[in-house]
Structures are given as C-alpha cells and as structure tokens.
Specification:
Blueprint lengths: L7 H6 L8 H12 L1 E14 L6 E17 L2 E9 L9 H4 E10 L10 E9 L19 H6 L3 E11 L2 E8 L14 E8 L5 E10 L10 E10 L5 E12 L6 E12 L4 E11 L8 E13 L2 E12 L14 E12 L1
Amino acid sequence: MKIKYTVMAALVGMGMVAVPPLASASSLKDKLDNIQVSGFVDTSYSGSNATTPKTKGFGLDQVELDIEYHEGNVGLRFDLNASPSAGGNVTNDGLFEQGYITYSVPGLPLLGEDGLTFTFGKFNAPIGWELLDAPDMYQFSHALVFNFGLPTNLTGAMLSGSAGMLDASVYYTGGLDLNGTTAGGAKTFGGRLGITPVEGVNVGLSYIQDKNTNGVGAAALKITDVDATIELIENLLIGGEYNETKSMQGAGIKTRGFMLMGHYDFTDMFGATVRYDNFDFDRATAGKSTAYTGAVTAALGGGLGALVEVRSDKNGAVTTDPNGTPPSRTVTSYAFEMTYGF
C-alpha cells in the first residue's frame, strides 16, 4: 500500500531543513508534495524439520523503505531494502532493490492516457504471478516456480504501455539478477503481454532470452512463463502459473514447473489461502519436487497484517533437490508472520 506523505513539517520540526524565504517556500513545498514514501517491516517466528535437530526461531525477515518522486511526466523510484534474517553481509546491490528513472509520453494514439513509459535502471522483473515483497503476498513462503524459475530483478531499459484489453512491457538488460558491467555484455531481452478479455480475468505471457553467460560460465537461458488471475467470484482470488526454462549451452538442462493457488476472504479481517506447486529441476531425470501450502490470514487494520502458514515439501528424485529437500522425505515447515506497511 502506498500513500502520499508530506514531509515538510517533519523535516522543519527536526531541524533538518532551514525555513526558506517566503518566495522559495512554495517551490520547495511543491517538490516535497510530489514525494511519495512507503515501506514495511516484516517479522516472523518460523521452524522446519529439514535438518536434525529441527530449526526454529524469530526473524526480522525484511525492512524496506520506498521513495518515489514525480514531476510532470518525469519520475524516479528507489527501494532501500534489507533482509537481516537471511544472514551474510549487506551488499550495495542488495541494499537497493530497485532504483530507476521514468519518462512518460502521454496521449499517444491507440494507447491509454498514461501513454508510453520508458524505465531506465534496476527494476523488479515483470514476469510471473507472485510478487516479491511480503505485504503483496498471501503466504509466508514463495512457490518453487518463483524461487527457481524466474529472475527477481533486472537492470537495463524497459518500455511499457497499455491499450484497451492489452498491456505490455519489453526490456533489454544486462543479464538476470545482475547489476553492473560483465564480460559478456548486455545480451538479455524479454517482455510480458497482459490480456484482460473480461473484467476480473487477466492472462500474462512472458518470454526471456538470456544470452549473457556473465563471463563465469553461467548457462544462457530461455524462459517461457504464463500466469493467470481470476476474480469472478466475490472475495475469491484464483492464481496460476506455468513456467519452462531451457539452458542454451551443450545438451542443456530443461526445467518445468507450475503453481495453482486460491485465496478466499471470509470477512473483512480473516481469509485463507491454499497453494499447490510442482517443479521438475531436470526433465531428463526421474522425480519432481512438490509443495503444499496452507495459510490463514488476518488484516488487523492500519496496514498491519498477520498470517499463519504450514507447508509440506516432497522430493521424488534420488538426490536432494535445489530447494534442500532430501529424497524420499517430507519436509514440514511452519511460520507466524506479522507485516506492517504504510
């Protein structure tokens, strides 16, 4: 949830900004009024029987502060982000989840009133059904498809626009989840076409071709993804996704996965979510990984939300999968999460 927050009074009150002369006060106030500030704190208590002894504990999973500024058809956004519970050192790339500049050309023929928008910088990848941040999710955990079939962020240039029942984005970037120069150069392109044939139904078709081996032998990839959202019944949300990834080097590894979820709000406060996802990490070998997830959600008001999740992961392969699930074993995890966003 994003709200406009006028920061002038707060800055002056803290002594961070000197009171300007009357002639320039209006100009400064106008600029500050164009700033939108949002963010969230995500905390949890979680556990799993994935290891012996079992793991459990409290975590500060994510803290994020998002700043947006728009003046006319020009704007910028940057997201300051940290995930303390994930461990490790905070890198500059991880600290800035997004950071981009936008330039919009409104009133173009055949396009909506927003026209065409050019985005330049680092941005969340417009692919897949699930979103990245905790306040935008219906579960504590992400599906296997999100974790292993999709990029998270892209750094490059993107054009986006909409017309009638269609919306589209095309981009050219320097690889997947990479920021900065590489030995391979910028050789990644892709896009998403969204179709809304009737109100309450949206289908997204995404494709990425990554020819950038990043100078370290990482395989170039082709990713195809289809996502769908259905909201035809009051209080019921249905989401689905199908994903294929193919390595373009040598014999190549092919993966395939899909996800289906449903969320129903029983009241303005309480809801429930179920999700099933299946992922084949190597279609040339036997065995697939599956996950069953259930969650009860609560909207406590004022941007405060909570949920309880129980998840069961199963691995049908003969070796431990990339998700960490051993063969022929069920890993059960649980979590209580609270998120406050403003």
